[in-house]
Amino acid sequence: MPTLTKRDLIVDITNKLNHLELTQTLVTEIIDQFMDSVTERLCTGEKVVIRNFGVFQATEVRAKVGRNPRDPGKDIPIPVCAVVKFKAGKELKAKVAQSLPIIREKRS
Fold this sequence. Notes:
Layout: H1 6-16, H2 24-43, E1 48-50, E2 54-61, E3 64-68, E4 71-78, E5 81-88, H3 90-98, H4 100-107
Antiparallel strand pairs: 1-2, 2-5, 3-4
């Protein structure tokens, strides 16, 4: 299944907004600034809400004990860590739900 890379995203946005005469360099800078802003806010414990798309939130995952499948008798302590969770918005969920036939077709 194909993957959308950052480069693909830059080219796609530049092409879709060609009437604004944006350069790929400018679009790259905008995307980089967007990602930096989201990262900074998440690192300070804030939620990032993008209406009709979703919510990003940093949460704490508690410490736990893991097992090595090659040596199941040995416990491996896994420390507390912070992870990013994403909850899709209603419009995004609805659009993805409509694409089920396309997703199934590509998986085949």
